[in-house]
């Protein structure tokens, strides 16, 4: 969750750090701070609870020493509340060392007791200050920051990225990572560290991915990476595929509005290069045909919105690849002793590639012999590096906490995966595959049509419902996970009660919630694909309408059967059954965004949430 920036080079580090932290605000935080060392070895530190602007104001009132070495941090409170004292950086070694930390040190209480017995006084309630004190103690013994790190990191349990500077070593930032994100940005005569490439993409798009249990030292002229035992490591280079302008609002009222508008491009970019001669061929999976032929089960593991994408993917993989698929919440998966083996493929889904619950599920699956494949939007992230294969979505940077374009890109990647696996396994006919590819390639234009035709209508509808206290969502088949996603979006950014149900479950309990005026969104499947399923959902609509519900139906163009029973109809273009979810979710995203805006809420940074959940 926390944002981390490190810099060494010729430029004023304070400016670099504050700009990097601003680009990481989307991750969610409640305090911010920086530490700077000047060329004379003077260390200055400032940290403040609240938004980054509070720190900026403090620095304008009383500047830190000019320096070209520094570290910066935005914190999401875990140990201790959001106070100035608990904010990062934390100082040690008589205030000669400053340290920042992302993650949770699980054995901090035992280590803290050891340090207190050694006479150390603590100024915060954090686990981070314990790590700072340990490294400070080792620095006094070794006089070398890298050696001090190496002596401490193996004593720490849990997840952590640590960055530190010491006034005796200006021009040096040392970092370590275990189960928490860290990347290096390579500049000309300067180098960067960040929890995300967004921290430095304004200055360089050349990057190095840091692996598990590795220590990195950066100076203006060099980057050195070793494992925790001190053995040299050659990190994996990559180029960031987007520039700083991609992560700017560009005139949109919010990042979420911008990212919804970018959904046609996100889907098109995810498809690009993966259709050859009318068939889906994913180049990243070249050489894995035997894997797909040999699997007898697929498990999709993810959290939140990504898990709903996985539920849509289950329908596609089972229909086209003819292999049973289970969808598991990552935070439950490894704690129930699941039955997996060498013929199981575990597919993980994560926008950031750093979702800790999902990362732990991937590691668990690999330890038990399963093959692993990740669907991810972020280059250089941990989950793809821990997986046997990766299919990148190409949605571009997603800054708003509530996922929109990443979600439709994830579904697109799963559709591609289903068609690729079906082709390799010989379980989808050429005719069916060609029809599916045609539907797939038509999606960007159809999403654009939904945005053009329905955005004003849905926004007006949300304005009328600004005082609504509860909204229900119903769907069947692939509409069910979209109902779940519609409810989640509304919860995330509007802070009102919302629930998604499989429409067939209505009569088994949820219909008790229906009372006069209760708004209910219904995702109506196309009668072209299943007249029976369509009729069943129309019956559901009649049931709730008879009890006074206000019914808003999402239906395909030309479907007139629902008109007598709907208070509002939102139209989506005709599409294949497995492609409808990508179109149907767009009005629900717009509705949640418009309702939150009508309530005067921050749609990009909803309360209590963070973009990237890097603790389990």
TrEMBL record:
<dbReference type="InterPro" id="IPR029055">
    <property type="entry name" value="Ntn_hydrolases_N"/>
</dbReference>
<dbReference type="GO" id="GO:0004360">
    <property type="term" value="F:glutamine-fructose-6-phosphate transaminase (isomerizing) activity"/>
</dbReference>
<protein>
    <recommendedName>
        <fullName>Glutamine--fructose-6-phosphate aminotransferase [isomerizing]</fullName>
        <ecNumber>2.6.1.16</ecNumber>
    </recommendedName>
</protein>
<dbReference type="GO" id="GO:0006002">
    <property type="term" value="P:fructose 6-phosphate metabolic process"/>
</dbReference>
<dbReference type="InterPro" id="IPR001347">
    <property type="entry name" value="SIS_dom"/>
</dbReference>
<comment type="subunit">
    <text>Homodimer.</text>
</comment>
<keyword id="KW-0808">Transferase</keyword>
<dbReference type="InterPro" id="IPR017932">
    <property type="entry name" value="GATase_2_dom"/>
</dbReference>
<feature type="active site" description="For Fru-6P isomerization activity">
    <location>
        <position position="611"/>
    </location>
</feature>
<dbReference type="GO" id="GO:0006487">
    <property type="term" value="P:protein N-linked glycosylation"/>
</dbReference>
<dbReference type="GO" id="GO:0005975">
    <property type="term" value="P:carbohydrate metabolic process"/>
</dbReference>
<keyword id="KW-0677">Repeat</keyword>
<dbReference type="GO" id="GO:0005829">
    <property type="term" value="C:cytosol"/>
</dbReference>
<feature type="domain" description="Glutamine amidotransferase type-2">
    <location>
        <begin position="2"/>
        <end position="221"/>
    </location>
</feature>
<dbReference type="InterPro" id="IPR005855">
    <property type="entry name" value="GFAT"/>
</dbReference>
<feature type="domain" description="SIS">
    <location>
        <begin position="287"/>
        <end position="427"/>
    </location>
</feature>
<keyword id="KW-0032">Aminotransferase</keyword>
<dbReference type="GO" id="GO:0097367">
    <property type="term" value="F:carbohydrate derivative binding"/>
</dbReference>
<dbReference type="InterPro" id="IPR046348">
    <property type="entry name" value="SIS_dom_sf"/>
</dbReference>
<dbReference type="InterPro" id="IPR035466">
    <property type="entry name" value="GlmS/AgaS_SIS"/>
</dbReference>
<feature type="domain" description="SIS">
    <location>
        <begin position="461"/>
        <end position="606"/>
    </location>
</feature>
<dbReference type="Pfam" id="PF01380">
    <property type="entry name" value="SIS"/>
</dbReference>
<keyword id="KW-0315">Glutamine amidotransferase</keyword>
<dbReference type="GO" id="GO:0006047">
    <property type="term" value="P:UDP-N-acetylglucosamine metabolic process"/>
</dbReference>
<keyword id="KW-0963">Cytoplasm</keyword>
<comment type="function">
    <text>Catalyzes the first step in hexosamine metabolism, converting fructose-6P into glucosamine-6P using glutamine as a nitrogen source.</text>
</comment>
<feature type="active site" description="Nucleophile; for GATase activity">
    <location>
        <position position="2"/>
    </location>
</feature>
<dbReference type="InterPro" id="IPR035490">
    <property type="entry name" value="GlmS/FrlB_SIS"/>
</dbReference>
<dbReference type="Pfam" id="PF13522">
    <property type="entry name" value="GATase_6"/>
</dbReference>
<dbReference type="InterPro" id="IPR047084">
    <property type="entry name" value="GFAT_N"/>
</dbReference>
<dbReference type="GO" id="GO:0046349">
    <property type="term" value="P:amino sugar biosynthetic process"/>
</dbReference>
